[in-house]
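Researcher: Next sequence.
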Amino acid sequence: MNPPGPLLASIYGLYLLAVITPGPNTFIVTRLALSATRRHAAWAVLGIALGNAAWLCFILGGVAVLLQQLPGGMRAVRYVGGLYLLYLGVRGLLAVRKASKASGAAPAVAPETALVERALAGEEARPFRSGLFASLSNPNTLPFYLSILAPTAAPGIALWVSVAAAAGIVSIAMAWYGTLAWGLSTGHVRRAYSRREPLIRQVLALVLVVYGIRLLVTG
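Model: Next structure:
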């Protein structure tokens, strides 16, 4: 049997490359870290980590193999994920438009008050659930995990190797998204963001819309 060290290193490396590539989870953590509070972003990170753990249990348990064999099973996953991302993006665009109208008609409020009000609206009021559902509905997760975890199912590979692979993936996810949430919620980043908030929120929402449409079209 080949030593498990190189196998685990390759799995961790592939996942790290994937997780630092901007995707739905990144956009949710970014939005909460910039427009709400560090605590909101941290709750979203926990939700994302739990979603990843659920996917890993699902895949390592062998259920994903059955889903691949079902007619339209993978396509259904992609459609559900695409619709959810499209929903998040459209709602984000509408929220930006509503906030823009309100800012022209309502008196100015303190920055911290505005942050709290935004944190109580939409998915920002439920950051853990938003992070969890975004992770669970990401249609790219299943095929990606299947591909990088397939070697752990080879004959002669001990069970602890699969467990170590799953634990490492969840740890990397928490470390990366946690670092992102912490860095983007610092004072100087927040001040810079406040000057460009409408534009940044629109861009993030549009990315979700485009990503969701692409999944629906290619599903």
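Model: The mean pLDDT is 76. Residues 73-105 form the longest helix (33 residues).
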